[in-house]
């Protein structure tokens, strides 16, 4: 199947919403908040990076979407800049055909070109290790101080991109609710 990976445009937003819904919809999940709402919150915020918000398109249809946002790794004294990969979604009818892989690879390339040094992702170990991600605990990067998250992964975009970097990850504000909880 021929498809193109490109930056999303505002006219894609309704179709992107449908793709994310089709990929993530789970019965019984809270309807107040979902991944497509997160993407829309990010777009309205100062943390949106159009160069890192990509779609896979074939014949005018959107088949997949990926978004990266700035992230901080809060060290003992200084915060380090990184990038969060979340979410990535491929329409349920087009999964397992390589589209997700191309979106992730294109995003990694764009992030490198923009000068980012690392990417953090929370997700399936089997999936993300294919792209070179390693357990974030290797660098003492985690969601809590014990750094034993099994689903948190990090990728260096430049040699030693994470050397000397350790701490607790902090997504950009749209990822948190009014109580400061990760949504
Ligand atoms: C996860 C997702 C984006 C992958 O996209 P995709 O287009 O289906 O994946 P690809 O076809 O590019 O798969 C690439 C490789 O990962 C494997 N893979 C695909 N989905 C996987 C999963 N959920 N877990 C583990 N491996 C997976 C494929 O078998 C393939 O392996 P190969 O390279 O050895 O052949 C897609 O399945 C999806 O939208 N899932 C629902 C939403 C989600 O969970 N997003 C991720 C969390 S933010």
Automatic annotation (TrEMBL):
Keywords: Transferase
GO MF assignments: acyltransferase activity, transferring groups other than amino-acyl groups
Domain N-acetyltransferase: 3-158
SUPFAM superfamilies named in the record: Acyl-CoA N-acyltransferases (Nat)
Protein's UniProt name: Predicted N-acetyltransferase YhbS
Organism whose genome encodes this protein: Maledivibacter halophilus
CDD domains assigned: NAT_SF (cd04301)
PROSITE patterns in the record: GNAT (PS51186)
